[in-house]
Amino acid sequence: MTAVSTAVDAVCQGDERGLAEYLTLLAAEQSPGWTQAVSREIAGFLRVSVTAAWRHGWQPAELVRHAGRELGDAHADLAADMVADEMRGYAPAMVDDHWAMQVSALGAEVWWGSDAEFLSARSGEPLRVAIELLHLLQHVPVLERLCPLPGAARAGGWAAGSDADERILGKIRALLAKAESTEFPDEAEALSARAQELMARHSIDHALLAAQSGSKDGPAARRLPVDNPYESPRATLLHAVAQANRCRSVWQKAIGMSTVVGFPSDLDAVELLYTSLLVQADAAMLREGAKKDAYGRSRTRAFRQSFLVAYAYRIGVRLSQATVHAEQEAAAAASGKDLVPVLKERHESVDHAVDEMFGDGLVYDRGSRATDEEGWASGLAAADMAALHNREQVSA
């Protein structure tokens, strides 16, 4: 049906008048069964486009988020529905656990009957939303493939960690949740410090165990959202957290995500800690309220940008100190085992994985600058309140 393709082309060209004409054409009953045929055609195009996005490296949660970020909630809802619909074509045993978890978390389901009812079962402007989403899906950039495709993987392909890993991660989540919810800075500081210490020790234990067993497991990668506003300092904060946990992050600004490369246990630490620190930073930043200059003009944006830049800088320093301290303690308790070559080998493996994944396309950015003196000072103070150096012994 050329009218569907032409409507998509109108979106591509920014031709609002032409798009409106083709939407009217598609919505009008041109002949018996026309509306059902349009519905089947669009559903089929969307399904094929979702499958193509998988081949281009996109994962379910990322694709739905991208639709919402670029177009809006209605488009994200439709994208989630199409993900659920497309997944019906795969046997559960051939879908990777990580992939299946994302689909489940979307909470979408195929609630319409046949493709002929696909559009009529929706409210709002289903034709426009579907055409705009179809255009977006057909123009998504190619990403690095981080997870086995559905149909080409076995359930459990991303094997979950051991029971011990899950217990430790549970403790870390609980500590960070308390740090985010408490109204007392000293308590938040102590809780975050305990969580960081536990993560660092857990990572070192993994490295030693892998070296002793001769494990050949290599680095993996995970994409994390980096949202506006103030996306650059948020990406800088993620970089600081990743670096302190023996990972590397690559910010992909165009899609609002950073790819973090590292060993699985370290990736877990990065995701948990970054999410918690971001919650704490945002809460501290918002408590500062709006800011005005001497002439009554708003300088809130400059203040908050500077706040987050300073926060990321100071957190990076303190995390690095905490990592060094944890390594020193581990080395003292390692009974003659030399940690240096073990950690060096893992660091080199991560660097090699980044080079393999991004090659010559990697571009280094200087990041955001702080332009508000009060914002910078407040950001440093907030980071100090989230201090992460070790202050007490942690038992696993």
Order of strands across the main sheet = 1-3-2
Rounded to the nearest angstrom, the radius of gyration is 24 Å
- Helix and strand element order: HHHHHHHHHEHEEHHHH
Average pLDDT confidence is: 83
Beta strand %: under 5%
Q: For the record, give the distance between the C-alpha atoms at the N and C termini, rounded to a whole number.
A: 62 Å
**Main sheet summary:** 3 strands, antiparallel
- Please give the number of β-strands: 3
Unreliable parts: 387-396
**Which overall shape is indicated by the principal axes computed on the Cα atoms?**
globular
DSSP summary: helix tally: 14
| Percent helix range | 55-70%
Overview of this protein structure:
This protein is mainly alpha-helical. Helices cover 62% and strands 4% of the residues. It is built from 14 helices and three strands. The chain has helices at residues 2-12, 16-27, 34-55, 60-70, 73-87, 97-106, 126-137, 163-181, 185-213, 231-244, 264-287, 300-332, 339-358, 373-385; strands spanning 220-225, 248-252, 257-262. Strands 1-3-2 form a three-stranded antiparallel beta sheet. Helix 8 runs parallel beside helix 11 (264-287), helix 9 packs across helix 12 and helix 12 runs parallel beside helix 14. The chain is globular and about 80 Å long. The termini are far apart. Mean pLDDT is 83; it is low at 387-396.
